[in-house]
């Protein structure tokens, strides 16, 4: 009998684990058989007949969704920005004014020195992206939208009756993609 090397053993164990994981995610297929009564017309006379119907049903795994409780104490929002001194200074001033109006919310402005887009995408992929970041609309907003990273704002604008006319039309147009505002 041939001995497995450590690498072969680990590879086999990883494949088996992945197979078990995928099997656990597979939806359950169930055949349901029912007796159905149906009215048919035979030579002008309605007649009730019974027939057996077998139906294949795919049942997805049940997902339990629970509400996240409201945080106790102040809320912190992390905002990432480019390392442009006058812009960062302005964002910090905006954050300061916002926090004065909303003392239970702390806004922390952090800068990304180089490779802004790559850093943001990497942080998003790793789950460390913070809460918001600055994005230039002329810089390919679609790459975020098509990856499911930006959400349409239209429902929020409609619900709150938000007045978009206070913004330059070009700025709003630049934030639209396929008829939706992001």
Structural account:
- With 182 residues, this protein is of the alpha/beta class.
- The chain contains 6 helices and 7 strands, in the order αβββαβαβαααββ.
- The strands form 3 sheets. The protein has a 3-stranded parallel beta sheet. Strands 1-2 form a two-stranded antiparallel ribbon.
- The longest helix has 20 residues.
- The radius of gyration is 28 Å and the shape is extended.
- The chain starts with 5 loop residues before the first helix and ends with a strand.
- The model has no long low-confidence stretch (mean pLDDT 80).
Please sum up the structure shown.
With 182 residues, the chain is α/β, with parallel strands linked by helices. It has helices at 6-25, 85-101, 116-126, 142-145, 154-160, 169-174; strands spanning 28-42, 45-59, 75-82, 105-112, 132-133, 176-177, 180-181. It is extended.
How are the elements arranged and paired?
Layout: H1 6-25, E1 28-42, E2 45-59, E3 75-82, H2 85-101, E4 105-112, H3 116-126, E5 132-133, H4 142-145, H5 154-160, H6 169-174, E6 176-177, E7 180-181
Parallel strand pairs: 3-4, 3-5
Antiparallel strand pairs: 1-2, 6-7
């Amino acid at each position: 009998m041939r001995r497995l090397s450590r690498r072969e053993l680990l590879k086999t164990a990883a494949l088996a684990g992945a197979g078990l994981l995928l099997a656990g995610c597979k939806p359950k297929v169930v055949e349901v058989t029912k007796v159905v009564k149906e009215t048919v017309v035979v030579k002008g006379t309605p007649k009730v007949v019974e027939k057996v119907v077998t139906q294949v049903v795919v049942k997805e795994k049940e997902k339990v969704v629970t509400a996240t409780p409201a945080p106790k104490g102040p809320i912190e929002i992390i905002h990432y920005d480019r390392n442009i001194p006058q812009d960062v200074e302005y964002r910090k001033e905006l954050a300061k004014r916002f926090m004065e109006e909303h003392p239970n919310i702390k806004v922390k402005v952090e800068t990304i020195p180089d490779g802004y887009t790559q850093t943001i995408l990497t942080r998003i992929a790793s789950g460390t992206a913070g809460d918001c970041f600055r994005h230039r609309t002329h810089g390919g907003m679609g790459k975020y939208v098509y990856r499911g990273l930006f959400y349409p704002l239209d429902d929020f604008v409609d619900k709150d009756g938000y007045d978009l006319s206070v913004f330059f039309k070009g700025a709003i147009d630049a934030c639209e993609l396929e008829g939706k505002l992001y």
